[in-house]
Design brief:
alpha/beta, UDP-N-acetylmuramoyl-L-alanine:D-glutamate ligase, 21% strand, 9-stranded mixed sheet, single chain
Amino acid sequence: MIRRLLYLGNVVVDIVLDVPALPGRGGDVLAHGSLLAPGGGFNVMAAAARQGLPVTYAGAHGTGPFAGLARAGLAAEGIEVLQPAQPDLDTGFVVSMVDDAAERTFVTSRGAEATLTAAALAGVTARPGDAATLSGYGLLHPSNRGALLGWLTRLPAPATVVFDPGPLVTSIPPDALDQVLRRADWLTCNAREAAALTGADGPPAAARALAGRLARHGRRGAGVLVRTGPDGCLLGFSATEPLAVPGFPVAELDSSGAGDTHTGAFIAALAAGADAAEAARQANAAAAISVTRRGPATAPTTTELAQFLSAVS
């Protein structure tokens, strides 16, 4: 039974620009809106916390204006922060451009969140019932990668590991990716990332391939979520065909953070006692609500999610 989300990914600050379209190379465009807010792994944690799940952040953070904004956001969501601030290094940021078709384009500047060390994680102990949640972004940074892989080897067998490889999955060193997949209980990704991981043609084939990979080399009973945008998601286990869990049609304004909302809401639903299919349905609903709102951390509260599901039922 999951009792806490222990997050080992990265919190950054999102600089979100709403633009009619991306400028051409060397060009310029006037944004018709902007937002500065905590983002990255913060979105996963906020989504889970708003569903009532206790959340702890074990990643690195810095000292400076972006770090202060990130910590204020964590405090506002009631998220515990384990690590002390890194001196003389601010938290990094992501410039996110969202066009009128709700598509997102990112540029990332790394900061203190990319400097996690084995020494910093030495004092982080997983409790019974923890869902240790990792992001592929952490595996891109050499210091974080070494610290996280070493920490995983000491993780008690009953602890649940949730892994989201992220959009830069092909940049993760293959041996590091393989080590995490061998320990993962849940792999959650979107259709593009699933295709990059497997080379399979279409989300169902990719979900089958990923579920088979986890079963052959990883944990018994490990599951796969492949998010398919407005269509919802596919839920896969090695012994069965992927289950299509339908999404909810909404008027989409901004897809920023929708995948993170899906992950956090899914973990929280499992913690509340839902089976995997119902947890995926609730995650689809939370993501649907998220895309109707502008900004990165737009996950619903427990009440908002319940009202939405009641209305669509």
